[in-house]
Amino acid sequence: MGLPIYQVDAFADAVFGGNPAAVMPLAHWLPDATLQAIAAENNLAETAFLVPSDQQAGRYGLRWFTPLVEVDLCGHATLASAWVVFNKLAPSLTDVVFDTRSGALRVALDGESGRLTMDFPARIAQPVAPPADLVAALGATPREVLSAQAYLAVYDSAEAVRGLRPDMAALAAIERYGIIATAPGDKPGIDCVSRFFAPRVGVPEDPVTGSAHCSIVPYWAARLGRREITAYQASARGGLLYCRHEGERVRMAGKAVLFLEGVVHL
């Protein structure tokens, strides 16, 4: 059996930037063990699988797998999946809805800018006492730590975030799916920078993480007193996200670029 596969660089204007995701359109769901094995074989931060709805055009079931586990929410692989829908599966569409573990997620295409805008749930992080094991694993003490699905470690400077050299084995032992490090932006037009570490689920450092911005954007929107946030994820590849906090939702926009397409043989 041959199945199509696309590798798309999400939150990128050109290949080799942003975050690569594998996207595999399916006619029906394969066994979970097969989906996980494909994701492990791809060895990318995420592989996304989508199946069209049999009741509504422009609607798909969507699931995301790291090399180790299935996850509840993934931004860059959602953006990549929308790119595949708009450019390969249904070019007449400019709006798509994905049914996921995190509810219905809508992605809209702006024909003028070429940006894809995702509508995601906000994950409001609450202040907590900085866990000693977290501080030790990060290797630098943040000014504050907050917690939602991931820890949010806030630093005073982008330089401090860029300079982090975490102990990945120690981070993997912390009972959170991931750890976000963030600080004020250090370049004109950039409100905040971040990095995201998730060795517990097989992703030591994710290049650009949409789901992390479900917490990053509400934090900086409240701190800066405005809803529009331009965020930069300061990984080696890097990526820009154009965001807006809207109460219980976060809108994130970016571009995506096709790197490869091929066939998976099972």
Could you explain how this protein is built, in words?
It is globular and about 50 Å long. A hairpin with an 8-residue loop joins strand 1 and strand 2. It has 2 domains: 127 residues, Roll (Diaminopimelate Epimerase, Chain A, domain 1), CATH 3.10.310; 122 residues, Diaminopimelate Epimerase, Chain A, domain 1, CATH 3.10.310.10. By secondary structure, it is α+β, with helices and mostly antiparallel strands. The chain has an 18-stranded mixed β-sheet that branches.
Overall tally of structural domains: 2
Mean pLDDT figure: 96
- Decide which structural class fits the backbone: alpha+beta
Beta strands, count: 18
**Rg, Å, rounded:** 18 Å
Features:
266 residues, alpha+beta, Diaminopimelate Epimerase, Chain A, domain 1
Describe, in short, the structure shown.
This protein is an alpha+beta fold. It has helices at residues 32-42, 75-89, 132-138, 158-162, 168-172, 213-224, and strands at residues 2-10, 19-25, 46-52, 59-65, 70-71, 95-100, 103-109, 116-121, 126-128, 144-147, 151-154, 179-184, 192-198, 203-206, 228-233, 239-246, 249-254, 256-265.
